[in-house]
Design a protein that fits this description.
The complex is a heterotrimer of chains A (318), B (324) and C (326).
Chain A (H helix, E strand, L loop, with lengths): L15 H11 L1 H18 L1 H4 L37 H37 L1 H16 L2 H12 L3 H10 L2 H15 L3 H9 L3 H9 L4 H25 L10 H8 L8 H28 L1 H24 L1
Chain B lengths: L6 E13 L8 E13 L4 E5 L6 H8 L7 E6 L2 E2 L5 H7 L3 E4 L13 H11 L6 H11 L16 H13 L5 E5 L7 H18 L2 E6 L2 H7 L2 E6 L2 E7 H6 L4 H9 L5 H6 L30 H5 L5 E4 L2 E3 L7
Parallel strand pairs in B: 3-8, 3-9, 6-7, 7-8
Antiparallel strand pairs in B: 1-2, 1-4, 4-5, 9-10, 10-12, 11-12
Helix pairs in contact in B: 3-4, 3-5, 4-5, 5-6
Chain C lengths: L5 E12 L2 E13 L4 E5 L6 H8 L7 E10 L2 E2 L7 H4 L4 E4 L3 H4 L6 H13 L3 H14 L5 H5 L8 H12 L6 E5 L7 H18 L2 E6 L2 H7 L2 E6 L2 E7 H6 L4 H8 L48 E3 L2 E3 L14
Parallel strand pairs in C: 3-8, 3-9, 6-7, 7-8
Antiparallel strand pairs in C: 1-2, 1-4, 4-5, 9-10, 10-12, 11-12
The chains are: A mainly alpha (318), B alpha/beta (324), C alpha/beta (326).
Amino acid sequence: MATSSTHVPSAAAASGLRGAIAELWQDKAAAVGLVIILLLILMAVFAPLIAPYDPAAQAITARLKPPVWMARGTWDHLLGTDNLGRDVLSRIIWGARATLTIGAVTCLLAATLGTLVGLWAGFAGGRTDTLLMRIVDIQVSFPGIFLILLVVAMLGPGIWTLVAVLSMTNWMVYARLIRGIVSSTRQTPYVEAAELIGCKPGRVIFRHILPNLVSPLLTLAILEFTNIVLAEAAVSFLGFGVQPPATSWGLDVASGRDYLFIAWWLVTFPGLTIVATVLSINLFANWLRVTADPEERERRFARAEAAKRRRRTRGANA
Amino acid sequence: MMQAPILSVSGLAIDYELSSGGLFRKRRTLNAVNDVSFDLFPGETLGLVGESGSGKTTVGRAVLRRLGVAQGKIIFDGKDITHLRGEELRRLRSRMQIVLQDPYTSLNPRMKVRDIVAEPLRVHGLAEGSEMVVAELLERVGLSRDAADRYPHSFSGGQRQRIGIARALALKPSLIVADEPVSALDVSVRAQVVNLLQDLQRDFGLSYLFIAHDLAVVRHISHRVAIMYAGRIVEIAPSEEIYNRPIHPYTESLLSAVPVANPKIQRARQRIIAPGESVDIADPPKGCRFHPRCALATQRCREEEPPLLHKTPDHSAACWNRPA
Amino acid sequence: MNSFLLQINNLEVNFDTRAGTVQALRGVSLSIAPGETLAIVGESGSGKSVTAQAIMGLIDVPGRISGGDILWEGQPLTAAKVGARHILGKEVTMVFQNPMTSLNPLMTVGAQISEVIELHLGFSRQAARKRAVELLSLVGISGPERRLNQYPHELSGGMRQRVMIAMGIACEPKLLIADEPTTALDVTIQAQILELLAELRETIGLAIILITHDLGIVAGLCDRVAVMYAGQIVETGSVYDIFESPSHPYTQGLIRSTPQLDVKDERLVSISGTPPGLLDPPSGCAFLPRCPAGDGGCDKPQSLKAFGAGAVACCKAGIDAWKEAV
């Protein structure tokens, strides 16, 4: 009996890390996004080595220095200093630590909680499902800022309070996504076959259902990360988040706003960093979403081929 | 066939859940199958035929204890399994298996063929030596041994269906419920799988409950055939009997609707038309469920539901107007 | 000058995939005369549906037409050309396998049929509605006035397919392409739909291209048959010739491996193996690895040549390839 491989195109053509990188390079925006993300992570990890100054070190003599290319700027402070003479660049580098840590930990907590609830609801079905999803609905309709104020009032502000609060207000999206995928995956024939073979529920969930969740979960978590970064900035801006002398980008924007008209750089640079982070993540996540969807991925490939062919014919005509 | 049946279903009724019931909603159900009885003997194939909504798939799932039984009894190998639960039910799974319709979705795309075929062994604590068993099974269903190291996506539909069959055979079951096992396959591959199923039956003494809508395939593979309409068995007989001497008017119209792949014969055939479409089982008509489409319908058909009765010793039908 | 409604010459369609270029159609030529019913028979991946999509201008990324041409009444028919819009959807229409996904669930049946009529024939709202009622009764839907106001989900599968056919013939097309129109339906409903198509052919002189894998349907309805395998037509001929004396080993195997309702064989003839991948199709006969009659002479390219009353792409055309096989 012939067992030769069939018309199903195999992924072998572009497998492995090198293939993935080559594919990413086709989408320049996403590639740039990934580079920026990696740079930000490196910056956060090696902050003590990179940052020219201690971010909290005040220097009364060098207050409100503008960036280097301005009239009064100096090479000592590339992006200038703030009202207490703290180096803006160093604060951004150190701020990356707080912002990225909060984002990562919050995403992890929220995703774990949401996944557990979603798995439970989707697998159990029936009344359990209804009950859990109503809880999600209630939580979603509860104003986030109100909850934040409530928790901060009880626990006092700080990084870990912030993480707890943001996790509390973000797990629902994961629960909804996972529950949807689980209840539809449960209907797929191979899951039915697994149950009819005599697999116990644990095996069905972890062996047959969970692997389907990895890529949508990853994509969602990356997108949600941007929300967390923005939320952290907002909450810190309001003064309920990261507390001085610790630093974060949101906090910097907040404390710089009083000097907006005499020292625009205090708000602009941390703000731009937030924008660049969020934008990079979105660009990369979009690429990842398409890559995780085999059909979309093929279509993207074919479009690139068609564009190449058009360029070639145009080149030949010219 | 005087021996004891391997499977004996009597008076089976199954309710289908319309809405699972929420916090403030009541559970709503629909009677999908009612009063279904049949026996299946060792080494026999019983074809279960019907159109969509006839309840044939539901019966198959109930036999495998995937669905709750509202009424009736399922006796498997002399043991009442109607209300088996927990670990006992799980152990029963090794004796009855399923072959599913769609070869593309019935195999986990993320598992290697080796793991797919070995999984039943593993979950029943027979992992030891499974390597050999898997290789033998693959060879038995017509795949080469090195298929074990590949993923399902590198196989064609027919080959995947062979993998599914190997998985079903792994625990040496005595009953296989085959739910439209060839209807998703291409014509040229369909014959391969039908032949394989027949060979396996001969070699292992398997019993098949063969669920299908394709009457030609069912005729080919089945020893006996049961015709279902709107949740009832309307006729059951040896397959030659059903095809040559159908009793129930529905069976007649069904047989005449199947196109024959021969232009001369097909164009000369007289179709027995049953006007309209299959009944809505949520709102079935009173009396015989087929009466709105039946040319023979009388007052009695509109009021009383005909029971499934022996018209000849091995041919039963549920019709008031067709004596033996 | 020719009398053909539609002519396809040497059509090639490629799909660009990451694994390489899949050659879905590899030089397909066929033609259909007015009022004729042509069956395109083949298995999944044989290219039968791609052929239909190519005619209707529905080949989209990742696919592309990479060679050959399609002529409508002698004029090139390309979706990009001005006037193609006028022909596609009006003179040539298509009915798909799954009526539920081709009907708009948010519009009533009446609105959807009227829309087609208003768009292509420029009828007024009232006139279009009147025509829609006529069409629904023509396709055998009882109580057409009432049905006009119903939504697709309120209709049964067979009824939806009738609506699709009503939309298909709304503009009195010359050619209807039906891609597996009854595959999703039960046999008794299938028989009703096939009778409807046969009737329409008589009453409005419709030419039909019926795409199917079911030989029984072909036997009952069609005049001529084209058998496709691996992106090529391997045999064409009249329906009687094809069924009575198939000449290509594949056609022979296909007919012999189909279980029959009227005769009980002990064992089906089965064609071993699977169709070749079209990523890198063989240059010679694509059926060679599965062919019991094949030998060393078969690895040269095979093209469709006149044989008997039809045409066959096989150097062993006419021999009984499956004589030994059981």
